[in-house]
Amino acid sequence: MIKYIFISTLTLMVCVVCPVLAVAEETADVSGEWNITLQFSLGSATHTAVIEQDGELLSGTYKGQFLEGTLRGKINGNKIDFTGYLRNELKGIRFHFMGTVDGDTIKWRDDYDYDEMNVDWADYWRGKFTAKRPKK
Questions:
Q1: Residue 2: half-sphere exposure toward Cβ, Cα within 13 Å
Q2: Model pTM?
Q3: 106: domain CATH number?
Q4: What is the per-residue pLDDT across 22-59, written as a single tens digit (0 to 9) for each?
């Protein structure tokens, strides 16, 4: 009888726990080219990111209007956090992005309060952004 109760309890635990583990959020695929529209209090800009993805790690190329540099970051489920680095002869500039992936769109995160902004241009400006994959 005790053996039967033990096996029944173990079976019940497996049936309850396994489906919960299977529901874990899948990491979004963000590899490829993205057109990024940045909106700051003093204006707007359009940049491009070409992202390479290895699991949760992101790398690639980040392009501003005149400069090009590297991109590094991470993704967890649909939450993305990456930085594009641009460098000229005088100084490096970084654009730090935190957003949520929804298919072919990445948008600033409503649930993250960083003075209500989710793109940070080094020490200069903060703003919001939307990134979209170009249509083929």
A1: 0
A2: 0.73
A3: 2.40.128.120
A4: 445 799 999 999 999 988 777 888 999 999 999 999 99
